[in-house]
Amino acid sequence: MAKKRPLILVTNDDGITAPGIRTLIEVMNSLGDVCVVAPDSPQSGMGHAITVNDTLYCDRIKVAKNEPQSEYSCSGTPVDCVKMAVNEILKRKPDLCVSGINHGSNSSINVIYSGTMSAAVEAGTMGIPSIGFSLLDYSLEANFDHCREYVRKLAEESLKHGMPEGVVLNVNIPKLPKEEIKGMKVCRQANAHWIESFDKRVNPLGREYYWLSGEFVNMDKGEDTDEWALKNGFISVVPVQFDLTAHHAMKDINSWDL
Amino acid sequence: MAKKRPLILVTNDDGITAPGIRTLIEVMNSLGDVCVVAPDSPQSGMGHAITVNDTLYCDRIKVAKNEPQSEYSCSGTPVDCVKMAVNEILKRKPDLCVSGINHGSNSSINVIYSGTMSAAVEAGTMGIPSIGFSLLDYSLEANFDHCREYVRKLAEESLKHGMPEGVVLNVNIPKLPKEEIKGMKVCRQANAHWIESFDKRVNPLGREYYWLSGEFVNMDKGEDTDEWALKNGFISVVPVQFDLTAHHAMKDINSWDL
Q: Which member of A181, A229, A231, B215 has the lowest number of beta carbons within 10 Å of its beta carbon?
């Protein structure tokens, strides 16, 4: 090959053996040289957590024989994996980082809880074009077949155009037969939140404990949101930023007597 | 008292017995009825993590005698604490949530790793005016005396004006003698990131492990940033949003061949 193949970092939050990441690796192998650095166990809901008070293990492994990617299993969070990959394992900055495919939605406010998206954001802070992918199916037996062509298309376009500065993509894919998917739609994050109901139980020693258990509430009727797109058969593509400054609110706060 | 006192939720990420939260509780007791729901152990760098695959304990405790606040110690993350407080413990939505005072900086990009700020953001998603406070001193023996008047002022103004919708405040306080503090400054988040250097060691069994150890790099020369303010003796106040949509990038991504 005359042209240099792009270097692609693959990670996720469901763990290195999850079916979602195996699909992602398969597609990326057709686009470039792939290095996988992913958690050794499920890390759902880890958000942007990093491991500051504990040690990290990171071992080279081989999950699947006869596949070209190099693979590392890391004891840390998804964000740790990205830091480890870029600063310790890879010899040069990757041309693209892809995270997922998550087993379950990371649309709207879920972006802030998501280990999948936080890994993508972490790569974004390092100036690496980066995309997080999620399928709206929590099952470990989820069918990722219909994701492939869209994952490839987005990766190709990112490699071609690069990413606008300070931006990563949050891509959610509906659980639908291939022929019912209407295409991709660039959207904004819907205004939604969770209302938690804690499931209180008593352990065998008589001590009360809880399971977190919530209800997702979408308060946004806009037809330009990711929730609308997903409900209407589209794949949602939300450009996400990590400059969290609410520039529009600065005037307001400046009017306070501080 | 004729007027109803405000209900104030206090949390942090350094744990319920950390000196920083004790200072915050003391100030809040002079402004309203205080409920503390905070982690039972340090949770630094937990970002917006939530506990989805494990149980949660939450016990009523009394850290300090003769103080009016109610206190709950929770086995979860800072975000879990806020969810637990609002959905399980409190009888009504609090009028204000304050988180901290963190032992160490949460300025610029640190906002996304910070358990302190993620707790504040979580309360913000529930429509609760919310502020995260951090002192630029990691020591457990840090002196919080000079923080009191600014913490009180910001809490009072938030109770008076409410918070712009979808916004929480990220407040960082320099480690300076009181007389050297020049006041508060409403700022934007500086464009900065971390470059990690992993400290590789070998455990007694011969297996390699790592400690995460990074260098903070500020790439932003603007004089309207939180980093500039802190370096120049000001307390930085950054309005932070949790709609992460990069609206300015939508046109760009829409030009891709998707």
A: B215
